[in-house]
Amino acid sequence: MAFEIVPHRVAYSFEVIGRDSQAGVSDVAGGMSFEWADACDGWAIDQRYLLRITNENGDDLVSQVSSVSWESKDGRRFRFNSKSELNGELIEEYSGDARLDKAGGEGTATFTIPGDETVPLQPGTRFPTDLTLVLMAAAARGERNYSGLVFEGGEVEGSVPVTATILPQRPARHKGLLKPPLGPHPIWPVYTAYFKPGKRDGTPDTEFAMDLQENGIVPDFTLNYGGLKLRAHLERIEKLPAVKC
Q1: Does residue 158 fall inside a structural domain?
Q2: How many distinct structural domains can be found in the chain?
Q3: The pTM is what?
Q4: For residue 169, which of 136, 147, 203 has the smallest C-alpha distance?
Q5: Containing domain of residue 23, as a range?
Q6: Among 55, 200, 214, 231, which residue's beta carbon has the most beta carbons within 10 A?
Q7: How far is residue 148 from each of residues 103, 116, 177, 226, measured CA to CA in Å?
Q8: Is 93 or 225 the better-scoring residue by pLDDT?
């Protein structure tokens, strides 16, 4: 099934809905912006997080994470750059290029930052946007479970195991800000878990639950980092201008 993805720019605010007492966090405020743009032969993604984290002593830490990437529409090539800052100081940066022999195939990822290094990508690897489209196609076919590998370029490592549970399509819930062609449309609730390679206890490193429309727009989602669970609320959304290819 072919999907009509609507290129868009969206902003969310975060609400803390779960917190482990051992995490040492008393409050979190902030949000995320996300842009999914049509770049003719590929998809351009720009994603940015800003979190103000207050610890139990009342001290604030400002965490900023940005990720800019381009992914070919055939799912075979991926260029990536991500940065993490804490209180304005650069903590991590990763940049490079990854290629697969086919969508969902095997290949290599070559990092140029933090240093020149090439890592293998296992058979079954998909890049992030292709994974989203694969999950949408699975949902449209009525499939309820997915298991595979994904490479996002957020660390110097290879493919990361990912599983997803997809629930049946439900009526639209978010009718305030979504106007045609953005929505509101029926959504698939999708629950995704990402695992550290080689981790043996079976617990995911990160869990991501989203309401996914068939035009690619996510009106709501939650992030679970283990000790901290955040719910995202849609604040602004706009359709991006059409491009001439």
Answers
A1: yes
A2: 1
A3: 0.92
A4: 136
A5: 8-239
A6: 214
A7: 12, 27, 34, 21
A8: 93
